[in-house]
Design goal:
Strand order of the largest sheet: 3-2-1-4-5-6
Mean pLDDT: 79
Number of strands: 6
Distance between the termini: 42 Å
Order of helices and strands: HEHHEEHHEHEHEHH
Number of domains: 1
CATH class: Alpha Beta
């Protein structure tokens, strides 16, 4: 691969991450209570190679929000034939890790609509600051997903979507879910888990402490994250 092509790819990636972090900062502000975040994942067969990496990533989310009053996280995943599971709300990585490591991926179609329905139910019970979804494909009609995403937006629950790979049909649908809910979409490469880890941590910090906390997080992390979020300095 030529140097110019590599530079172009790096620029494209930085632009997408930059846009994602700007959308995080523009999302509805947390209420000042302990943050609540739903962490939803596709556990169908195509995701099996990268599932195990999620455990260390979600542990980092707890660590980054500890000084902000903490974060409660609920794990949601789907797999197989009509299997949708959710954990109780967990306030530490130690409580959530066993549930994540016990999950085994199984072949099946996507159930993103059911994930959004679950988030709607939870948000009607008690404030949910954000929904994170990690997946690679969409096999459901877009109209139904768009309707649910819009209702989440009305409830103040932004959906932050991390797409593994760049399957075009999924990309169109996932971008629309993020847009209608007031959230953001960002692709990631399974071979570079560090980027996903940092972006997920950024969302968790936002959910727990708002835009100012996100700006402080960027300063502490330094490097590329600081450069990408330097413009997000006002709450």
């Amino acid at each position: 691969m030529s140097r110019s092509k590599r530079d172009l790819q790096r620029t494209s990636s930085r632009t997408e991450v930059d846009a994602f972090l700007q959308q995080v900062a523009a999302a509805p502000k947390p209420t000042g209570e302990r943050g609540r975040l739903i962490f939803a994942m596709d556990a169908t067969a195509s995701r099996e190679p990268t599932w195990d990496r999620a455990a260390s990533i979600q542990a980092a989310m707890f660590q980054e929000t500890r000084d902000l009053g903490g974060l409660d996280v609920q794990l949601v995943h789907y797999r197989g034939f009509q299997e949708l599971h959710h954990s109780r709300w967990c306030s530490s990585a130690d409580a959530l890790l066993p549930r994540m490591t016990a999950v085994r991926c199984a072949a099946g179609i996507t159930q993103i609509g059911r994930v959004l329905d679950h988030a709607l139910v939870e948000a009607e019970r008690k404030r949910v600051n954000a929904l994170v979804f990690v997946g690679d494909c969409v096999e459901e009609p877009l109209d139904g997903l768009a309707d649910r995403a819009g209702r989440l937006g009305l409830l103040g629950v932004p959906v932050f979507v991390f797409q593994e790979g760049r399957e075009p049909i999924a990309e169109r649908a996932l971008k629309e879910i993020a847009r209608l809910s007031g959230g953001a979409w960002c692709p990631f490469d399974a071979s570079s888990p560090r980027t996903l880890k940092e972006l997920l941590s950024a969302v968790a910090v936002y959910a727990a402490g708002g835009r100012k906390a996100l700006a402080d997080f960027s300063k502490r992390r330094g490097g590329a994250v600081l450069q990408l979020t330097r413009q997000i300095t006002k709450d």
